[in-house]
What does this fold into?
Amino acid sequence: MGSNSSRIGDLPKNEYLKKLSGTESVSENDPFWNQLLSFSFPAPTSSTELKLLEEATISVCRSLVINNPRTGNLGALIKVFLSRTKELKLSAECQNHIFIWQTHNALFIICCLLKVFICEMSEEELQLHFTYEEKSPGSYSSDSEDLLEELLCCLMQLITDIPLLDITYEISVEAVSTMVVFLSCQLFHKEVLRQSISHKYLMRGRCLPYTSKLVKTLLYNFIRQEKPPPPGAHVLSQQSDGGGLLYGLASGVATGLWTVFTLGGVGSKAAATPELSSPLANQSLLLLLVLANLTDAADAPNPYRQAIMSFKNTQDSSPFPSSIPHAFQINFNSLYTALCEQQTSDQATLLLYTLLHQNSNVRTYMLARTDMENLVLPILEILYHVEERNSHHVYMALIILLILTEDDGFNRSIHEVILKNITWYSERVLTEISLGSLLILVVIRTIQYNMTRTRDKYLHTNCLAALANMSAQFRSLHQYAAQRIISLFSLLSKKHNKVLEQATQSLRGSLSSNDVPLPDYAQDLNVIEEVIRMMLEIINSCLTNSLHHNPNLVYALLYKRDLFEQFRTHPSFQDIMQNIDLVITFFSSRLLQAGAELSVERVLEIIKQGAVALPKDRLKVRPVKEAALVHHVGSMFVSEQALLRVTVPTSTRARKGPVNTASPSIWVLSDAEGVSEENQTPSEHSICYE
It folds into this structure.
């Protein structure tokens, strides 16, 4: 490095890097630093180039690891950076490109070194390298200056106080990224860290007063989605507009942290890396999530989580309670808009979940919005493209729906929002459908995909829970949504019969051979019957609470009424079948009185008239049992107990053990079964009820 442009291949031989990592101490006032920091570097544009950079610099970094206890050159470099940041704000106002450029380069080198130091040594050794004070070779003083804490405070000030201009964009990105690298210590520990340097510096001491300001700034960085300046508008030469070199370096670390904070990618597809329009927004979001999900310190709660849990809308003039620390205000309308637009990334979905679950102010605001379709549609699209998403992204989207459907107002309002031409829904052309009916279609499709492919018991249990939450508020269901509800029940019914048949055949075979162990068909039947009961609960809840609002569901119920015949006398379903059987019998008799062959329009007219005539007291009101109401779980992805070993998010009740990837055979549907059921729809011209 130095005054000329550097290439990756030249780095191991670079005389300035050799001096930095060598055995000679360099004073912080030495002109050497101006020479070292006067370099330009083409930004790597791929993971291959990043790997080449790390391989080229690893020998230099390891040499510094060995020599720094004697030379203190890392501390000198940090002091040079710290002294420059004191004038950074003034330099930005004066458009001092050279000064900002060199300060940026200093931070870039620090971050590269920090990453290697964290990989190569324990936290205790890392702290020693940052507490060097020149006394005698290799000696450390217990009261020496702690440069690591000073560096972190300086980074916080840089992020929160330096105005975001074209010439400061890159250094702002790199300040955020350096903090992400610092927090990557968790990646190198199997156990959850509760007493780490991140707890020591970020949750107490000099960094603590910056908590609310830092969280607010990171949120606004996400909201604003500021794009990097065009080439030539800032101090660093670029090959592309994808962000600086340090962004690429730290994004690799952030990807590792993201894996820690989600399901780890086990059994799921790798997420496609989208082209980032705003590196600053992306890195700020990742840092915000990492900070918010740090475990509590032994003697204090996580202040960053407290800040996220308590911030309010700028239009809320009520005072903050004195018991709430680190409180601040932010524009909820801007936040809502950004969240709606950014749901293609799983980290944005995690932020949405975090805010809905932990911040009651945000949750109340979002549920009161009159344009909830802007938020719900991206979530539904995630579930619709389940085969293209990572499992943790699908689960987050599903848990968000569970949180939303716990609100009766939401469940009512989504049926009043009419959508036109949903282009991403390809199974059927939907020229006009309510948001509520579309939600039902997507959730049912997710269940059927799970039954045919992933076979995750808890996924479909939570999908059915969302439907159960909504069922009492079903209104004007689209005919296709009503058909899919009954079609799903048909699939479950067929599976139930198939398991019964297999159990019977197995029992007969065991009579002739005592050596053959019997499969546990009782367990299979219990599972399938539990899910069938949940479906019956959903149908029953709709009929009991909103029969007159849903003629299409009654129509589909009558068309497939033979499916329910076998469950009328089944001891597990007799109680829940009473209302369904009454509705089928009542409307069937009215249709028989009307004639043999009836058009669809005539059938619907008779159903609407019958719904008015049916005495409401004949339907017994039955609350949906807790077995069907599976609510969201708190801190599901990064709880204190499961930071590194996160399991599938489920309800407390439903979680009876780990997810069984080799699920019972009842969940294995052939593709043919799923496709054939998809095509079984009532005729749109005439129906014969005899």
Notes: The two ends are 88 Å apart (CA to CA). Residues 287 and 535 are 42 Å apart (CA to CA). Strands lie at 312-313, 329-330, 418-420, 432-434, 597-599, 686-688.
